[in-house]
Each structure stands twice: as structure tokens, then as C-alpha cells.
Amino acid sequence: MASVQQLNTISQTDVDFFWEHGYLRIPQVFTPDEIDELSDEMDRLMEEWAMRDAGWSGDWRREYMDEATEKASQLWAMHDLWYYSAAWMRSVTHPRLVGAMVDLLGPDVELHHSTMHVKPPETGHPFPMHQDNAFYQHTDNRYIDTLVHLDDTCHENGEIRFMDGSFRLGPLSHVLKTRDGDECTPHLPTDQYSLADTVAVPAKRGDLVCFNIFEIHGSHINTTDVPRRLVRVGYRHPENMQICGQSHNRPSWIVAGQRHCIGDQQGFSTEV
After folding, report:
1. CA 211, 215, 220: angle at the middle one, nearest 5?
2. Judging by beta carbons within 10 Å of its beta carbon (0-12, 13-18, 19+), is residue 257 exposed, middle or buried?
3. What domains lie within the chain, and their CATH numbers?
């Protein structure tokens, strides 16, 4: 854990809160001008590159939505925005964002991935309770997901919600098949984990909400007449090895500190 002398962006009180509760909101990490640029680029990326489909599969959909809403519900998404936008490349290496990761993870921080999560108007996709570790499994909890807010969030548009302190449970088994035996998107059992037991963390445009890879979370549907736009960016300690899942075996940037050689570890291949 970071010492007081190492803190760059957040206070020791914030650091302690994160490691007690598993989540933290950091106000105004991005300036209004910066968020305006990211917002404009987000709209372009949504139009040119984003996937628009029904989103996560599974029996949970029947628990969260009525039949008509379930059929209409969509999620707009894409991965690794820095491949498509210099503005988003700058955002994932932003000094205040990276500084907060150093405060929480220590001096060495590696970027892992980014994912656009847009809930379209009125039937924007809710999320069942889950741990992000189910999608990119790691050996320990030195991994932090951050949500860059392009819009204010609230109950009506599906703000992020956390099961307070649940990261201490470690990695949990997720539902991977429907009642009919078909494969589905990983999620926790709806009869054991409920949004009713979570803490809502609404945030403002330009805020950052960060949470531990093992923290259980979810969100309600967007019922407003405008999209709810977020980008999730994941950071980890370079020694926290990935087991499987999204971006497995793909090297990424050291955004703070250094990557140290462990044992007979070899450098990254230059081959495709």
C-alpha cells in the first residue's frame, strides 16, 4: 500500500477507503476541456466502430427486464480505444489517473485494456452482479478497473453499484450456462446476489470511479432518453499474472515505474 510520501492524486484517507470497501470515486480527474474532447471522440467512435447488439446473455435477463424491454435492450461497446483515437491514448496515460493508480497499487503500474460501455436510451443494457475477474482472471487482487465518466450518472440511467467490501471474498465461481445448457456471459447467481444489497456510486462528468477486480458490482437499466457513456480502463501491478480471458498474453504499456524480470522470464516477442 502506498505511503503518505508516495501519494500523487488521492489522500491516504482515500487509499484506506478503497482497501476497506473495494471501490472509490475520485472527483474531476479530467478537466472540462479534456472531457469535452473525449466526449466528442466517444461519439465518433460510437458511430464508426462500436458494436451494437443485445449485450450479455443469460437467464438473468428475465430477472432484470420484462419481456418487451429484454427484446429491445442493447449494449454499445468496443475495446482498446487508444487504437482509434489519440485523445483516448492520452486519457489512459493521464497524470492524475495514473497517479491514482500508483497511490493504490504502488510505484509499478501496467495498463491492461479499455472497453467502451454505452447504455443507449430507454432500454440501455443493465448488468447483473458479477466480478470482472470472471472476464480476465488474475492471480491476485492487485488489479483496478476504472470508469471514466463522460456523463453524469444516477439511478435513472444506471449508475455503478457495489457490494461493499466484497473483494475480500476473492474470486468466485460464476454462472456460465443457461438453464437450457447454452453458454452465457459470466454472472453471479441472481438468487444469491442482488442489486438491492449494493451501494450506489453516482458520479459526475469527468469523475473516475475505480474498483478492485474482485469487487462484486452491477447496474440497473438506463431509462432516460439519452445514452449513458462510460469507458472502463484496467490497470494492474506488472507481477499480477493473468490466467486467462480478455487480453491474455498480450503485453501492454508500463504507465508508471518499471517491469522487472522474474526468474528466467524472456522479453516480449516482436512476432505477430
Report:
1. 85
2. middle
3. 16-256 (2.60.120.620)
Alpha-carbon radius of gyration of the chain: 18
Q: Which cell is 38 given? A: 473525449
Predicted confidence pLDDT, tens digits, the chain (272 residues): 444 455 899 999 999 999 999 999 999 999 999 999 999 999 999 999 999 999 999 999 999 999 999 999 999 999 999 999 999 999 999 999 999 999 999 999 999 999 999 999 988 889 999 999 999 999 999 999 999 999 999 999 999 999 999 999 999 999 999 999 999 999 999 999 999 999 999 999 999 999 999 999 999 999 999 999 999 999 999 999 999 888 888 888 999 999 998 888 788 877 76
Nearest in space to 147 (alpha carbons), one of 127, 117, 124, 103: 117
Alpha-helix runs per DSSP H in 93-221: 95-105
Query: Following DSSP, what letter does each residue of 61-121 receive, concatenated?
Result: HHHHS-HHHHHH-BEEEEE-GGGT-HHHHHHHT-HHHHHHHHHHH-S-EEEEEEEEEEE-T
**Whole-angstrom distance between the N-terminal and C-terminal Cα of the chain?**
37
* The amino acid at 247: S
